[in-house]
């Protein structure tokens, strides 16, 4: 059992790392809040003084604000649904004995290590190009006209690209959870005559609930800040402008750091709302 002296020593040794971590998080946040109340134009006069809530009102009253929030939530929701559904299926499949199982697992997980800009360029030029893309050739093979994916089905295309990147992560976490499942439970249920679907619904899926919760929370944190895939493929056009991309455009177009900082505060608020919602819905599984 740890003594009072050892606990005090542990706190002292951890203090520098904790202080550094808090500084790393709090300094940018405080600066963002500070600039959000200022009119700061670095290329046109610099700091022009305090403007109060003018940046917040200007950002939220923009006609592009609510569509960007909607696009953000659609992308996050679509990617989460796809990666969880197919992640569970792939995890169950990869858990089965097969020839070359190790190689197959590496190939399935490999897309997660590809840079977002690279994967977006691959999808844009090799798969979704309406003239020379793989999908265009498939459409012509079946006698149909090629689809210009990034303009005619822009949001589904972004969801598809991002899902391809994050599916390996979900699969890896869920596969690890499945491998910790006691096989005796499944064998007992099989001996009692339970069909595969009931074994999955009443044994496998409840066992995966904690892993699914972790995947939901981690992916949501990163997906709310999606940027590179949109920048490379559509440039925010055709209804794919998320809140993060809108902040980038506002800062780039107006050169107003204060306006962009106000948008950043809105993004933080949205992230916290989504996180609280997820924690209330599925976070209870962490305590199970």
Automatic annotation (TrEMBL):
It comes from the Bacteria. GO terms for biological process: transmembrane transport. It is a multi-pass membrane protein. GO terms for cellular component: plasma membrane. It is found in: Cell membrane. The chain crosses the membrane at residues 12-37, 71-94, 106-123, 158-178, 214-237, 257-279. Keywords: Cell membrane, Membrane, Transmembrane, Transmembrane helix, Transport. Residues 69-278 form the ABC transmembrane type-1 domain. InterPro entries: ABC_transporter_permease, MetI-like, MetI-like_sf. Belongs to the binding-protein-dependent transport system permease family. This is Sorbitol ABC transporter membrane protein /mannitol ABC transporter membrane protein.
């Amino acid at each position: 059992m740890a003594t009072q002296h050892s606990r005090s020593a542990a706190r002292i040794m951890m203090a520098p790392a904790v202080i550094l971590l808090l500084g790393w998080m709090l300094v940018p946040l405080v600066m963002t809040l500070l600039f959000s109340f200022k009119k700061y134009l670095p290329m046109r006069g610099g700091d022009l003084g305090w403007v109060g809530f003018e940046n917040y009102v200007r950002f939220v009253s923009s006609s592009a604000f609510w569509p960007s929030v909607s696009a953000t939530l659609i992308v996050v929701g679509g990617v989460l649904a796809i990666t969880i559904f197919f992640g569970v299926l792939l995890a169950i499949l990869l858990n089965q004995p097969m020839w070359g199982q190790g190689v197959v697992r590496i190939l399935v997980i490999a897309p997660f290590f590809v840079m977002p800009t690279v994967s977006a360029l691959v999808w844009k030029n090799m798969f979704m190009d309406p003239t020379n893309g793989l999908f265009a050739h498939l459409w012509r093979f079946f006698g149909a006209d090629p689809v210009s994916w990034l303009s005619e089905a822009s949001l589904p295309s972004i969801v598809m690209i991002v899902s391809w990147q994050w599916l390996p992560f979900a699969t890896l976490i869920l596969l690890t959870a499945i491998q910790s499942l006691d096989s005796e439970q499944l064998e007992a249920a099989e001996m009692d005559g339970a069909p595969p679907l009931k074994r999955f619904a009443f044994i496998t899926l409840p066992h995966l609930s904690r892993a699914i919760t972790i995947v939901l929370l981690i992916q949501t944190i990163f997906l709310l800040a999606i940027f590179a895939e949109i920048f490379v493929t559509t440039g925010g056009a055709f209804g794919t402008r998320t809140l993060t991309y809108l902040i980038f455009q506002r800062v780039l177009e107006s050169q107003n750091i204060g306006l962009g900082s106000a948008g950043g505060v809105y993004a933080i608020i949205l992230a916290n709302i989504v996180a609280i919602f997820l924690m209330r819905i599925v976070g209870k599984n962490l305590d199970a």
